[in-house]
Amino acid sequence: MEAVEVEELTSGASSRIIPLCKNLRRSIFSHESLRRFLVFLQSVFLFLLLLLPRRRLPSSASQPRSPPSAAAVTPSARKFSLRRRDEEDALRRRALAEGLEMVAETEIGDGIGPCRWSTSLFFGVGRNALFCRSWFPVNGQVKGIVIIIHGLNEHSGRYSQFASQLTSCNFGVYAMDWIGHGGSDGLHGYVPSLDHVVADTGAFLEKIKSENPGVPCFLFGHSTGGAVVLKAASYPHIEGMLEGIVLTSPALRAVAPFFSLVAPKYQFKGANKRGIPVSRDPAALLAKYSDPLVYTGPMRVRTGHEVLRISSHLMRNFKSVTVPFFVLHGSADKVTDPLASQDLYNEAASVFKDIKLYDGFLHDLLFEPEREEIAQDIIDWMERRLSAGTLDNMNKLQWMNKTFSDQSIDE
Fold this sequence. Notes:
The chain contains ten helices and twelve strands. It is of the alpha/beta class and 411 residues long. The protein has an eight-stranded mixed β-sheet, sandwiched between helices. It starts with 5 loop residues before the first strand and ends with a helix. It has one domain (93-394): Rossmann fold (3-Layer(aba) Sandwich). It holds the Pfam family Hydrolase_4. InterPro entries: AB_hydrolase_fold, Hydrolase_4, MAG_DAG_Lipase.
């Protein structure tokens, strides 16, 4: 039997590298069977890690007197202490988020920036305070609105250059930090449920639509944010508010442990993405990993489980996708799988859909050296979508007028 050629790719935002066969569909084992087997092995491995005995401290005879042991602290007191610590950390991150300059100095002329920007707080479905940003053209003319949903472990402030390019083409921009990210409430890097992020995205969209009646809206999502956007758009009432969605490097295929419900805040050090290149621009890498609002610690197990859960759900339901979409992916991405984006494009029932794969590009497309060209590809697609929507409305109006005229003649 001819040997099956193997190529190393990553599976989803969990960043664990797994072997995928180029000729997998023709091999004895299906891709789904391989994925489940790897998930099982990883879950067993991580569960065994939890069972390992903790390193004991030296005996008290050789140590100075220590404060009261953790056992002397009541569970309620410990819980209050942890909650207080998380709240203080969120406030610290919020102050940092407020202090970010959202218009680059090189883009400011005569003291007037190319766009006006602001920050605000939005209370999500769980009543958590979520940090939000907005950018609008200084001329006030807006032909559409783009709502940015960032990726796992990052924050909305990283997209200021993209926002400036959008506003220069008369698009308004909003962005929201997830729970546990950027300037929002929650333990840094911890997502109890991506369904909450999906619900917050829908509620945020409803708020923006109510404040901007009649203005077409697009949802943009990167990486795990792309998975959030795709799932949000699967709900008819959300899809009905959208002109389309844009997905860059969406996390549609991932591996993460199943036992996260047992130890949801446990950190799996093997999931640290810092060692995996996400951009070919060294300055972009340095900026990302020196940003205090970017979570660079080990992935929390529960968060990894949530990535697996939402990606598995989406992979099973590609055929039911009907929203207009544009998916963009780098062929050399080592964090999320470009083949999954191709599967989405091939299987989705959407009438208006497009895909663009960038040869040799990595995960963070909008932070690659060609970021301006990629952003322009997104802008061009949205403008084509707006033109198509206008034509559809004109055809619908003509059909209604013709129907009314025919009824009048019959009468």
